[in-house]
Specification:
The protein is an alpha/beta fold and 273 residues long. It is built from eleven helices and eight strands. Strands 1-2-3-4-5-6-7-8 form an eight-stranded parallel barrel, surrounded by five helices. β1, α2 and β2 form a beta-alpha-beta unit. α2 crosses α4, α4 packs parallel to α5 and α8 packs parallel to α9. It is globular and about 75 Å long. The termini are far apart. 41% of the residues are buried. The protein binds 3-methyl-2-oxobutanoic acid (KIV). The site of 3-methyl-2-oxobutanoic acid has 12 residues, from β6. It catalyses: (6R)-5,10-methylene-5,6,7,8-tetrahydrofolate + 3-methyl-2-oxobutanoate + H2O = 2-dehydropantoate + (6S)-5,6,7,8-tetrahydrofolate. One of its GO terms (molecular function) is magnesium ion binding.
Length: 273
């Protein structure tokens, strides 16, 4: 079979093999133009269900649908050729049964061409992770703070300070690794616990609010780019300040439109001489 025309994306297996090599670089991406800019610099791009809050102004990720994830997965695939692209399974598309999870994940893989899916959950999702991975679907796990469970866990806060919390995250991480995930996100978890889990599991841990002790890092790209002025959690660093730049550009545009200085002659079509 010819491989001409096939992209040489980083595979989930290659991400898994990076454990112990160098830190894994990962960001979220939701649209083609941003994915195009991030792709050369990232090992993994996640089409996260955070898009519900970041792009659609939702209060939580609970309202995100499978169709939304597929549309944005397709957009990101169109803009990338290097990074491993993983698409989140949204709330309600996989928790009911392993069969439901397979149907949702298969739809995502078939309709987007992405490299795998991410799902949130620990011990309770281990059977599902094993079911998917043994049937050809690479799974990226997600333990620690799980935003899809915000309605039962009571909000967004860092975890692992009490023995009970730490023990749960520890057991969740081990279960997801043993079930066959190729890597896992650890979100909002105190540093010593993230360090301990990273040493204990065979697969890479990708931290968000879980310290540099993890095998890699992920941030929501819009956070990292400084596109939100009003909210900056402790674990976010702005590597650019795009929000004030966008505001200033909009202000300058409005002034020029009102003054009729835009469009100028060079932006205007004239009859041929
Ligand atoms: O949905 C998302 O963007 C995520 C990352 C923050 C890990 O799950």
């Amino acid at each position: 079979m010819s491989t001409v025309g096939h992209t040489k994306r980083i595979t989930p297996a290659a991400i898994e093999a990076m454990k112990g090599q160098r830190p894994i670089v990962s960001l979220t991406a939701y649209t083609t133009p941003i994915a195009r800019l991030l792709d050369p610099h990232c090992d993994l791009l996640l089409v996260g269900d955070s898009l519900g809050m970041v792009l659609y102004g939702m209060d939580t990720t609970v309202g995100v649908t499978l169709d939304m994830m597929i549309a944005h997965g397709q957009a990101v695939i169109r803009g990338t050729k290097h990074a491993c692209v993983i698409v989140d399974l949204p709330f309600g598309s996989y928790q009911e049964s392993k069969e439901q999870a397979f149907r949702s994940a298969a739809r995502i893989l078939k309709e987007t061409g992405c490299d795998g899916v991410k799902l949130e959950g620990g011990e309770e999702m281990a059977e599902t992770v094993a079911f998917l991975t043994s049937r050809g679907i690479p799974v990226f796990g997600h333990v620690g703070l799980m935003p899809q469970q915000v309605n039962t866990t009571g909000g967004y806060r860092s975890l692992g300070r009490s023995d009970k919390e730490a023990d749960k995250i520890r057991r969740d991480a081990k279960a997801i690794s043993a079930a066959g995930a190729f890597a896992m996100v650890i979100e909002g978890t105190i540093e010593p616990l993230a360090r301990e889990i990273t040493a204990a599991v065979a697969i890479p841990t990708i931290g968000i609010g879980a310290s540099a002790a993890c095998d890699g890092q992920i941030l929501v790209s819009d956070d990292m780019l400084g596109l939100f002025n009003d909210f900056k959690p402790r674990f976010v660093k702005h590597f650019a300040e795009l929000a004030p730049m966008v505001s200033k550009a909009a202000e300058a545009y409005a002034e020029e439109v009102k003054a009729r200085t835009f469009p100028a002659l060079e932006h205007t079509f004239q009859p041929k001489k």
